[in-house]
Amino acid sequence: MESDYIKVFGGNVTQSDRVEQLLQENDISPIVKSESESARLAGFGTPLPHISEIYVHKDEEAKALKIISQLDWEA
Asked: What are the DUF2007 domain coordinates in residue numbering (predicted)?
C-alpha cells in the first residue's frame, strides 16, 4: 500500500517536538508517530523509549527537509 506521507525525521522526543513546532510555524502539518507512546497506551514496553518519527505529506517533503536541515541542534 502506497502512502501519501514520507518520513522526514526520527529522533528523541525533545528533538521531535522542536522539529514539529518548526514545521507547523512554516505551514506544514506533520504527523508524529511515537512507538513508545503507542506501546505504553497498549500496555507494552518498547526497546527504544522516547523515540518519535515525523511524517509529512509527500508534496511538502522538500520544504520540510530544507527546514530540518537548517536546524542548529546546539541552540
From this structure: 18-70
